[in-house]
Structure formats: structure tokens, C-alpha cells
Write the C-alpha cells for this entry.
Amino acid sequence: MSFFSKSPWILHYDASSCNGCDIEVLACLTPLYDLERFGVVNTGNPKHADILLITGSVNERNIDIIRNLYRQMPDPKVVVAVGACACSGGIFARAYNIQGGIDKVLPVDVYVPGCAARPESIIDGVVQGIGALEQKRRKSA
Amino acid sequence: MKRTIVPFGPQHPVLAEPLVLDLVLEDEKVIDAIPTIGYIHRGLEAMVDRVEYTEMGFVVERICGICSFMHGMGYCLALESIMSVEVPDRARWLRIIWAEISRIQSHLLWLGLGADAFGFENLFMHCWRMREEILDIFEKTTGGRIIHSVNRIGGVKRDISDSELIAIVARLDGLGKAFEATARVFANDPSIRHRMSGVGVLSMADARAVDAVGPMARASGVRMDTRLAGQNLYDQIEFEPVLETAGDCLARVVVRMREVRQSIDLIHQMVDKMPKGEGLPLENKPRGNPSGETFTRLEQPRGEVVYYVKANGTKYLERFRARTPTFANIPAMIKLVKGCDLADVPNIILTIDPCISCTER
Amino acid sequence: MDRQGFLARVGEYHTNGWRLAIINATTVPPVDAAEPGIFEISWGFAKDLEFETIREQVTTADEVPSVSDFFGAAFLYENEMRELFGLNVTGIGLDLGGQLYKTSVKIPFSHAAVKARLAATAAATAAASGKKA
């Protein structure tokens, strides 16, 4: 991946995370890690976003929200599941209100491990997500 | 006048976390706000039926990634009181040093998010740059940036060497100096004053009436801080809670800024007072299974937390309950939102320093 | 429970300047008893550094009066008790109509739900020790 043809925008949604991964996602955007050097911008609008960055797992109430956010994003789009909870339910997999990882509802392209996921791995996950986005774009072209 | 209902959340640019408020508006004025939560409800309190009490501490730490250290400490304190375990001195001091470091972390994080909410992105970046220094200290001493898992029932898992402690204090002093430049902006910048001063005023009487806790109550002049109870060695150092009287958004910012400075000072005192030396005992392992119950209170960065633990002599606790500070501050938030302008809603919500994952567990 | 006496005691805490620190319900074992099972509710009050509780044991058939008239902040605890424990709390200041959490397991702290979780844990433990042997 020598260059990116576009600057991918990120939509971050906290499914049922403990905040740990969320603040690490935010920390990625701040001076020390500076994810924006890859042209990545954090947006609040799903219709502007290329990459959906989800932390936490699926529960009864947020399942429709997750589907809804994904539906509103324009194609091609990529889902990055950040942290153990988003990957599999993590430590909360056995809690009564947790249904499992994000792949219960959405096609996940990149899994980022960790509890909480470290900024380095989140950046790596996003960069891999950019790669997946490029591939999808070429396929659809 | 015609009423309009505007939903706020669950996915909102200002809040990283999902909170839903149905705002009932008349023109630009908010008349009523009805909260809906449950987007982060995991049901972790019920995990006591599935997870042994020795491991439950790791679940409790993950109630919230911002005060994870304090949650782990609170759980261990509760179990220690039920099992009558004596925690070694050095471990007790190390715990409150880490606790105050995590208070600085939380306040810097919040000051950044607050700045972001009123559109001052530069200030957000500065606060979070300083916060990274704290995370460095955490990573060096506990091995984790966010989730630390150093608390054990009966003590702590790791020591911080005396020389390392001195280095940490020096580093915090440096951070304190850098912080002053940012604090000046918060206190004096006209655009910040315009957005915060006189907005969302909670009078002292109201703060008492809605049972507000933590910086929220202290910004309205209520002298309330569980550290005053003198548990956990706070009686051995000089401590007086930070109070402001204006009760507006700016006062809540100022309280947290002053608490950053205060925590640095407290850590100075703690490092001076604690027993020194290598290889001091850090842990007294408990024996058997717990039996009994307790209410444990602790002052987290956002305010008082209450844990209830009931054990019945088996490996599985009968009940674990955490009443977190945000849970107690939501009534105050709803009170403040009523009657404000729609454009001020994000500021007001942010200044209670909401932690939704704490609230819903 | 004695409704009048209870509300009088709560009112006394309120008049004397205590604040409501917590309302907590606990599912009281044995959980395999025939319904209605017993629940214990603690109302925790704090004043400066002191902490006191009022305790009551109830079943889902009993009516638990809300303390919202004295402590406005009680509504969150009370909605939660109704939704998670299935308790019949009446007169809540801000009644969210069972829409506070919306859990996939209905009434997750009912005697039946706790019993099911404990049984699942016992089965998992037995299976794990079976594998080892």
C-alpha cells in the first residue's frame, strides 16, 4: 500500500464498550498518535463515513442502532471491530444482556484485539481497513 | 406554543458514548428532557452468578475504562472488609497514589472533551497530550494504559520502587507547570467564558435536593467528598476538598482544574509519608470464601461511588452492586437541561462528566 | 411492608438533611423456592460521613411505595428495581414505563433467572472437571 487514493473518514460508535477502547480511539486522533496523518477524519455523520469503527459488543438495545448506522453509510464501506468485546463479547460474553461480537450483525472486515486495544493496534486496524476499502472500491469500479 | 421533540443521541458527535435524551422544545427553549439508557447495559452485576469472587475484580474494573483503577480498588476494599483482611501498609499507600494519578488522568480527559464540546479543538489536543504523560506512568508502573489489574483482594500485585516514585513526582511537577498554560486559557479565554459562565447554574439548594455528588456538588458549594471520611489513609495527609460557589458550567471546569493541582500535591504528601524500602510486603492473601455484606464508599474522579457486596460463604457472591457517580448525577443533569437553550445542551451534559458505561454497567 | 411507617422513616431522614445514596435490591436465596420469592431492599442514606440503611423484605406481590416525594433522584433506582427485579414500585416521580434498560433476558434478577444462571454455571463447572478427569 504505497498510497491511498482517498482520505477515508471514520464513524465511531460505542456499542456497549466500557469506554476503555473508546478513549483509546480518541487518543489515536490526538497529537501523540495522530491518526489524521493518514488523511483519516473522525466524523459524526454516517453518510460521510467510509469506515465504521465499533467498540463494544451487541446488546438488545443497540442492535438496531448498529444496523441503522451501517445502512446509512455509502458503499463501499468497511467495518473495523475494536477490542475484545467487539471481536467476541470479551470478558462480558457471559453477561445476560450481551449477544456477542459485532459480527453477529455486521460483516466485519478487520478485527483489532486487546482489552483495551492499544492505540498502535487501532492504527494498524484502521490502516488495514483502508486497504480493504481500496480493494472493495476496485472491485466495484 | 407548538412543542417539538428533538432526540439527542444515541450516536452524537459530542458524546463518544450513547445516551438518549428526548428533548421537548418550545422554540429554542428546552422544556423537558426524558432519558433513555440501556445502550451499554451489559448486566455485569449478574455475572457474580457465573464468575468466582476472586476473578470478579477483573470484571468490575471493566465497568468503566476511565476509572478502572478506582473500580478495582473499591471492589477489593469491599471484599477485604467482609473477609477482615489486613492490607500491608505500603500497598495501601500505593493504591491511593495510583488513585490520585487516575483522578488527574480522568480530569485531563474530561477537560479535553469539554473543550471539544464547545468547539475549542486546540485545547482538546493539549489536554490529551498531557494526559498521555499520565498513561505513560500507568503503563510503566502497572503494565496497562487503561485497564491496570494491579489490585488484588488483600493488596496490590506490583511495587513501585522508591526511586521510581521520586521520578514520578518530578514528572508530575513538570506536568503541573505545563498544565498552568492550559488552565490560563480555560480561566480567561472570552469565548469559553461566553459559553460557560452563567450557563447551567445549579444552586447549592438544588444540588442538595437532587443528591448531586462529586465535582458537580462541589462546584455548587456543597462540601462533600468521601475522602474526608479519612478512610484509606486520607486522614494522614492534609486534605480539604476544592469548593466553588457559582454552580455554573465554568465553576465545574474550575473545580476539576483545581483538583488536578490538588492531586499532584496529594501525591507529593503520600510519597513523603509512605514507608520506604525494597521488598516490603504487598499482599495478605485471604483464606476461604467470603461471608457477610458491606457498603463501601469511595471518591472517584466523578464523585462518590457506593458498592454493595453480599457474600454467602460460597465462591460466588450473592450480590454485587455499584452505584456510580454518574448514576447519581443524572437527575441533576435533567434539572439543568430544563429551561436552557438547545445549543447549550451539549455543554451542560458534558459538564456533569457523564460516564454512561458506569451508569448502566 | 408497613407503608405508612416506612414513608414516615424516610421522611425523617429527609427532614434531618440526609441524602439518598443508594437504593439496592437483592434476590434473597433460596432461589429454587416456589414463587413469589423474597427480595431485600436497602435504602441507603448518607449525611456527611455517616451512612445508614432502611431494610425491608418484599415479594413481587407486595407494593413498594416510591420515595420520589422526598428524594427526587430516586426515580432511576426505582425504575431499575422494577425492570431488573420485577418489583411493584408505585408512584415513581418520573415513570419510564419499563423502558430504562430493555434487556434481552426479561427481569434478569428474578428468582427464576438467577436459578437458571447458577444452574448454567454448575453445568459448565461439571463439564470442565469432567474433561480434566
Notes: Chain C is about 35% helix and 25% strand. Chain C touches chain B through 37 residues (CB under 8 Å).
